[in-house]
Amino acid sequence: MRRIRAIPDEIRIEVRRALAENAQELVAMMKRLVPVENGDLRDSIGWTFGDAPDGAVSLGDLGTGSDTLGSIKVTVFAGNRTAYYAWFVEHGTERTPARPFFFGAYRALRRRLKARLGRARSKGVKKAIARG
User: Are 108 and 29 in contact (CB under 8 A)?
Assistant: First the structure.
């Protein structure tokens, strides 16, 4: 806990902002890639800080990967009570082929998301150093 408190707020603020931007960009691409019949699945795709809402399937987390930043985590999710089939669309079933929308979007954006997070850390450190 002492190490977490020692990290300047500037770094946490910048990392949190970058994670939110990453999540928004990832969700936007997922919504473009998801197959649409009536729009329920597309409309259920979203993100939140922390855990996915009830009824949603967490298809992945974006985070700092570091407890030293207080485990800042963004959860990207799809599905709800109406669009309960998000996992089946992503991974397929015996009768229907997979039509991935999450992992394809993540693979396409992975480098950009990591780079944004790295820049945010650096920016936060520079701000903290400037503050003294």
Answer: yes
Please give the C-alpha separations between residue 94 and each of 9, 14, 91, in angstroms, as whole numbers.
49, 44, 10
Range(s) of the domain holding residue 48:
2-131
Domain count, the chain: 1
Tell the residue number behind the tokens 């890639």, with chain if given: 33
Structure tokens at 84: 């309960």
E strand map for 1-132: 46-49, 57-63, 73-78
Where residue 9 falls among pLDDT bands split at 50, 70, 90?
confident
C-alpha span between 131 and 58 (Å, rounded): 38
By three-state DSSP, how is residue 112 classified? Answer: helix
The length of the chain in residues reads 132
Cβ–Cβ < 8 Å for 47, 99: no
Question: pLDDT band for position 67 (50/70/90)?
Answer: very low
- In whole angstroms, what is the distance from residue 113 CA to residue 102 CA? 14
Strand partners, 49: 74
- Per the model's pLDDT, the better-predicted residue between 128 and 5 turns out to be 128
Distance of CA 40 to the CA centre of its chain: 20
